[in-house]
Amino acid sequence: MDLKVKYRGSVNNEAIFLITKDIKVVVQFRAPEEFLLEKNLPFESWMDTAKIRKYIARRSIAPRLSILVQDLRHGMKKVNVEAQVLETPKPSLVHTRYGNSALVTNAWIADETGKIKLCLWNEQANCAVKGDTIQIKNASVSTFKGERQLRLGRKGTINVLQTHVTQTNQQPEDISKNKVYA
Question: What is the mean pLDDT of the chain?
């Protein structure tokens, strides 16, 4: 594991750097030359820049694996999540800005690290119920009215991995009285 930083040149007063790991390109980025000339540059806070955060959000090391809810950030795309449905309000009929009517609901889902709102439209609005374990693929993370939420969009999918089974308080001896129809 050998990381190398290589200066590639300058364009419009910005230095271009290439970072490689062994022979594989990790990232190419630009940095303003005035930034590089600053003294006492706190390198620890350099990773907090918006460009670096967006780049890391866009590039998922293992895009097929599920991401934890606590790691979801605004602007992430092609997100895969496995979570349990905490709450599914009754879908509402809304009128879109295009003059169409649509069903929409904002379900709450969670994993062991946190919870997030999941916006479901039309036929997806009724596909998951409280207690279901679901898998979401190719979603995006956005913010609406100050809250993070997952959106499926056109390419996103939702699959129910495990349905919630409602338990009844039936005594074992009462089960034998049940009739089975085949």
Answer: 79
Query: What SS3 string covers the chain?
Result: CCEEEEEEEEECCEEEEEEEECCEEEEEEEEEHHHHCCCCCCHHHHHHCHHHHHHHHHCCCCCCCCCCHHHCCCCCCCEEEEEEEEECCCCEEEECCCCCEEEEEEEEEEECCEEEEEEEEHHHHHCCCCCCEEEEEEEEEEEECCEEEEECCCCCEEEEEECCCCCCCCCHHHHCCCCCCC
Total domains in the fold of the chain: 2
Q: Is residue 170 part of a domain?
A: no
pLDDT digits (tens, 9 = 90+) for 47-71: 566 666 666 666 544 445 788 888 8
Inside any domain, residue 169: no
Residue 177 domain flag: no
Is 34 inside any structural domain?
Answer: yes
What is the pLDDT, as a whole number, of residue 61? 46
